[in-house]
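Quick question, first post here. What does this chain look like in 3D?
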Amino acid sequence: MSEPQGSQGTTQRLPVLEKAADTGGENEAPPVLDGEAGDAGGDRRFWSARRVPAGIVALLLLVVAAAFLYDVAAVRAHRDALSWRRELARQLAERPLDDIWVLVGAGVAAALGLWLIVLAVTPGLRAVLPMRRPQPDVRAGLHRAAAATVLRDRAMEVAGVQSARVRVGRARADVRALSHFRELDDVKADVETTLAEAIRALGLSRRPALSVRVARPGRKR
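> Answer (accepted):
Ran it through. Tokens below.
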């Protein structure tokens, strides 16, 4: 499950968080976050359900198991084994270990196994930034695109900023702004101050470092 380093500032729906009432009343739903598949604890990243890889592996295992089960049942019924199994057994018995196709097959199997191991030991959901936990039974996260949208809107409030682009990653928030008036150093200082406050207000468990660049808009031809 690879992904880009950051997310452009675009409008997306924010994560939904619900918390049960402290005193009487009906039971409410536990905290809900899109794509959450279990609590990793603390401020760690959210774990992905890995539905697509799990579905592919399950489907492949089902097909292979069904084929071998049918072949075994046919042999038990005193019928000839399927031709593909006889050919596979012959190829495995006759081909040397240094054969090119044996090496290619082993490489593909090793790559698939390594991919499954990586998926099993990594949390995934890189697009969700963990937030601080004000209560031990409450856990929330913020999508990177939503965080980028908030920071972009705050940057646009600074006097002199004509447009802004924001990319939010796990460790850094990159801001590229165009200023059509005021001194660039003054605009940059105001943007840094405003966005530093905005990042603190996001409530993230690990605040990304802020990188701001301000330039003049290019001339129209």
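Confidence is low (pLDDT under 50) at residues 1-42.
The chain is about 40% helix and 15% strand.
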